[in-house]
Amino acid sequence: CIFKLRDATRLACAAERLGQARQQLEKTYGQDLSRLRALQHGTSPETALFLRLELLEGVAAFHLDDLPAARTKLHMALDKWHQLQVSDEAVAQLVAMGFEEVEAQRGLRFCKSNMEAAAAFILEQREKAKAKAEEDRAHRRQRREQRKYGHTPQHQGVDMALLEQLAGLGYERAVAAEALRCHNNDLEVAINALLVPEQRDKINKAANKRRKRIRDQKPSTSGASRQRTQGGGEEFASELVAHIAGMGFEAEAVLN
């Protein structure tokens, strides 16, 4: 920002802030990324970040008339820029193996143009993305289910971990959720209530009432709207999914 302002009086402040940034980065990643490389098995995911830092340090040193420091920093930035370059041939080989071009470029940069490591990295990232997408879907399903059960008298949602425990004991989920809801997620009190026939009947009735209310609130779909959805809507949706999948996303993740 200071360089954009073209205010020479703030150059010393810029150099000081860049020095603070370097101290924090080296504290986090180790001198010359040594700690990070050890954790990442020799790869350098933060090279671009240090490239920007050294480039700015070089510019600041130049405008402060510290030419030796400017030359050193700019040469360091140039070395890192060369490290980030990948050959078109290497990218083409990875693309021929079925990877997307963007994936290939990122993998090669991350793995210092090592083809085998880049391919393994891309596959690992895909698996992580797939696992994250499944985790997100599971979380959304859980949140939708939790909303169905309403709030406790203390205005909290049903504790889904406790609900899983009750379901594991053989209780119907809706009934177990209602027991937790009306007893403020107190597991022991909820179990005791389910063991007492009169209280269990009351909880069952409340759960059935809530289920009926949810069913009654679901909007009905007319035949005409269903036909529209099954006609042009599906065609548009399939085209949209294909377009997004072409950007590198998994089709299954797009659909969900």
Gist of the model:
This protein has 256 residues and is an all-alpha fold. The chain has helices at 2-5, 11-29, 34-39, 47-63, 67-84, 88-96, 101-110, 115-148, 160-168, 173-182, 187-195, 197-217, 223-245, 251-255.
Descriptive overview:
With about 260 residues, this protein is mostly helical. About 75% of the residues lie in helices and about 0% in strands. It is built from 14 helices and no strands. It is elongated.
Portion of residues in beta strands equals: under 5%
Q: Which spans have pLDDT < 50 for at least 5 consecutive residues?
A: 221-233
Give the end-to-end Cα distance, rounded to a whole number of Å. 41 Å
The global form is elongated
- The secondary structure category is mainly alpha
Q: Roughly how many Å is the radius of gyration? A: 29 Å
How is the biggest beta sheet arranged?
none
Mean pLDDT: 81
What's the helix count? Answer: 14
Number of strands: 0
Order of secondary-structure elements: HHHHHHHHHHHHHH
Q: Helix coverage percent of residues?
A: over 70%
